[in-house]
Amino acid sequence: MNRIFAGVLVMASLGAMGCSGAGSTGASPDARSRSASLSVSDARGRLREADQAMSDASAKAGSAQGFAQFLAEDAVMLVDGEYALRGRDAIQAWLTAHPLEQGGTVHWEPVRWDVSADGTLGYSVGHSTVDAAGATAKSLGRYISMWRQQPDGAWRVAVMVRNAAKTPMTPPTGFSASHTLPAAAPRTLAKDAVLAEAKAADSAFSELSTKEGMGKAFITYAAEDAVLLGGPAGLFGREAIAQAYTPFTLDKIDLRWEPVLGDAAASGDLAYTVGRAVASGKNAEGKPETDYVKYLTVWRRQADGQWRYVTDGGNSNPGPQGP
């Protein structure tokens, strides 16, 4: 993890304690028809089952085989210190060289999962655990997976970000595993038009960060029930995010970004963006330093028509290109 951005995440943790792949691709008429026949609740259940099946396959066959079979052909994976891995083959090759199970058994457990109103796009947020024979401690990670329903009705991962962690995500009592707030008015749009709205929101989000600070931006654009990977147990809800991010004023860190890739549901209520970011600030010695980051942001259109992020995560890039 880059030094400046790692410092941001550490401060967020302390604050919380005190307080296609990525490209847009159209769903087939059969997939849309199949989704329309399912209720949102049923679609959420199917997505949860897919996440569990991914975990079971990973535990049985390892990440390069079990996990990789749940990737869309054009999937994107964000891992720390690398430019984004693009395509199932590239991800599988990387996992063969850097298996997530590290000689043990890897499991995935979501704490939040949800789907678009038309059931064609969904996301899950949670933690991964590696149990190694004879190990005295478990290896942990936290992840966001963006899922896309395939023409045959199967759910496959379009984008994933995974970061190392010291503790699992633990939702507070009463926090819902899925979205329960009033939904935006139903509508049907071309997916490209929906994605354009989400990208515009992402760009405005970055502009606020450059003008008024990262903390103000992350608080302003958080959905009321947003979930972030930071903090000792994860950050659940806008109030927890505000407590963690208020210290990130413009004089401490200048974080700016731009969306590059993404996809959206034709129901007009859910989208995601993948992009690159630059963090500028000072290191521990007070000297200027610049770090590069890639990110995944999941957006939900709110009841008032505004786009707000429901989850967001990223990790370091080796340079300014990418994501």
UniProtKB/TrEMBL annotation:
**Transmembrane parts of this sequence:** none
Does this entry carry the keyword Oxidoreductase?
no
Task: Tell me the segments the record calls region Disordered.
Answer: 22-42
Residues of the signal sequence? 1-22
Indicate yes or no for the key word Cell inner membrane.
no
Keywords on record: Signal
Question: What range(s) does the DUF4440 domain occupy?
Answer: 48-157, 215-308
Superkingdom assignment: Bacteria
InterPro entries per the record? DUF4440, NTF2-like_dom_sf
Tell me what this protein is called. DUF4440 domain-containing protein
Organism per entry: Corallococcus llansteffanensis
